[in-house]
Amino acid sequence: MKKYLHIILTLSLWIGVTNLYAQGAKATVGFDQLRFCESGTVTMTIRFEGPAPYEFKYSYAGGIYSEPDWNSDVFTKEFTFDTDVTIEVFDFKDVNGVDGDVVNGLETVLIDQMPTPTISPNVLTCRKEVTLSADPGGEFTDFSWTASESGVFDPETIDKATFFADNTGSHTVTYQVENGVCVASTQRVLEIEEVATPTAQFRIVEDRICNGSNATLEFSNITGRFPIDVSYTDGESEFSSILNNSLEKIIVTPTGASSASYTLNTLIDVEGCDNTLNTSDDVILDVVPNPVVDFYDEAFCGDEANVSVTLYESNKCEWKVVADESDGSGLYFEDRTMAETKAYVNSNEQQAYEYYLLELTEINVLNESCTGSDGVLLELYKKPIISLGAPDTTGYLDKAIFFSTLGLEGLPYEWDFSNGLNINDERLDKVIVSGLLSGLNEVICTVENGTCPIVEATKEITILDLYQTTGFSPNGDFTNETFIIGGAHNISNNTFTVYDMSGKVVFQEENFCHVDPDGDPDGDEKIGWDGNSNAGPCPEGTYYYTFKGDELVKPIQNYLILKRSKP
């Protein structure tokens, strides 16, 4: 037990001694100066207390330096800087390696930059009042304005000061700027004289304008040193403009329901001399019409349309065609000065589709320079009225016939026809239908043009076998003057022969009732038998005839009666 007690007492004594050393070691850091202008040298002094030698570190400007075995009670170090820097002493230990206290171990050295103050050469003077502009030329902590002669500065700021001199003559103004421990100044010598204030009269050139248009402020009897800053108001907003000479004008855009009033407030000349005027002039503002066309890009079927517009007031108006984009027949107005009128085109020249860009201009009767307009696109589709000739046509053994049309030229049309038929419509005045079959053949033409109702026309063509009559009367009454066989022209290499009662041939013709391949009768060729033989007119009576050709299985034999007497 005594053995352990001795060990415990020894250990406690050693710990106590160690704590005694640690509590007694101290490094007190001091600096002779911590703020300089532009640059400076700092002396750092460290005073130590406690058992030496000492170990410590210090850092500055990004570097760390060590003193591992310092035996003196004082450590001195000089630093030279031209920018701000932080100096720190740390890791202080005594001879036993025990950490000691560091007092004032962290300080910052401040390097102030010298300002370069300037006074602007632009000096404003009025009467004995001088306004100067300045620039501190860098960072600053304080500034001051002083003058060599009596007077006051009011106001005075870092970048501007107004000096009111007590008397005319030469005055030296000093502008001083401080930045920490750096102090710099500049001076300006002023020759101060009495200066007259600027004056002017003004008027609005136009006494009446359209609302939203520009007006002109014109000045007269203007005095002062140019350029002159003009301050004016329209009663709601403040404005400022520069006059460079006595003839210069100011362009403004008045606002208001019916009138506007402008007041000239102050004039400030180039040297800062000012004058308050408070003179006014008025201008009447006339309404700019805002017409609205009552239809919008509307399409009409036919050659006319009723157009109308809602006017802003009971003003004058005028319609006009701005552009004809369709190369149409031309648009006309029944009365282009009416809000409601009729627009129409020449129906004889109307294209299938025409469109025109119209503009309606409304004119304020109180001020005809105030106008408003609205535009609209007018579209006109030609109304289809079509015809395919006679509604029904009958042929005999025909494979192709022609018919004329009306109303299809220039319109969008389509054909619909019976099976087996073909249409050649290269010429609408003579449409050829081929592939005809015996019985009823039907051709339908449909026109669908824009907003117009769809129009259809039907052509019915009936094809029959050969048609034969049993008599005719060539007596000059223009009725039943020739004997024909319907469809004979469709029998190739045909021969028609007429016999009298004795069996004598009185008339014979090949290609009987011939027509040309397109279906038109040949004007130079006689169609049918006119009752004459080579010897002259045949007498009334009964005759026999035969008709044969390639397509006939057997020749046709029949009789006919010829009459010449008129009923």
Overall pLDDT score: 88
Biggest sheet statistics: 5 strands, mixed
Provide a count of the helices.
1
Under the CATH scheme, the architecture of the largest domain is Sandwich
Overall geometric form: elongated
Q: What structural category characterises the helix and strand content? A: mainly beta
Question: In words, what does this structure look like?
Answer:
- The longest helix has 23 residues.
- The chain folds into 6 domains: 91 residues, Immunoglobulin-like; 75 residues, Sandwich (Immunoglobulin-like); 88 residues, Sandwich (Immunoglobulin-like), CATH 2.60.40.10; 90 residues, Immunoglobulin-like, CATH 2.60.40; 73 residues, Immunoglobulin-like, CATH 2.60.40.1080; 96 residues, Immunoglobulin-like, CATH 2.60.40.
- 4% of the residues lie in helices and 52% in strands.
- The protein has 567 residues and is mostly beta strands.
- The N terminus is likely disordered.
- The strands form 13 sheets. Strands 2-9-7-4-5 form a 5-stranded mixed β-sheet, with no helix packed on it. Strands 10, 11, 12, 14 and 15 form a 5-stranded antiparallel β-sheet that branches. A 5-stranded mixed β-sheet has the order 19-25-24-21-22, with no helix packed on it.
- It has 1 helix and 49 strands.
